[in-house]
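DM from R.C. (forwarded with permission)

"hey, sorry to bug you on a friday — could you get me a structure for this? deadline for the figure draft is monday and I only need the backbone to look sensible"
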Amino acid sequence: MGLFSFIKNAGEKVFGGSESAEERAEKVKAHLGKFNFDLSGVTVTGKDSAIVVSGQALNIDEKQRILATAGNVDGVEQVEDQLTLKTPLKIEIPDLTKTMYTVKSGDSLSKISKTVYGDMNQYQKIFDANKPMLSHPDKIYPGQVLYIPQD
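My reply, with the result:
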């Protein structure tokens, strides 16, 4: 559980500009639906430039991917994580703030991989974890928040 910050004016454009908080939340949930996440136990609500994601996620990887995808919407500045897991972890939960990386100008997946894993050739792991939000390893942008798998 926690609050994750994102760059408000970066990401996928899904809003028209005059939606209520409820309409914005519905559009974010519809956007999440495009990525084949199991959203059967997930609720999305909105308040101003923040989105609250609650309910149950299938597993830790899907939870982190849902949070990153919701935050990578133009107009969303914060995502409040109120998700639990359908299947509890049998290991200690890692520091979830270390599983998110905000892309900076000049970054590439190889450079990010070198930073987080110490090996630039592990970029495919990051790319795969962020599909289908990422369509190509070279198509990342400053401000985008990526899920960094820990295994």
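R.C.: lifesaver. The mean pLDDT is 87.
me: no worries. The domain at 96-147 is CATH 3.10.350.10 (Membrane-bound Lytic Murein Transglycosylase D; Chain A).
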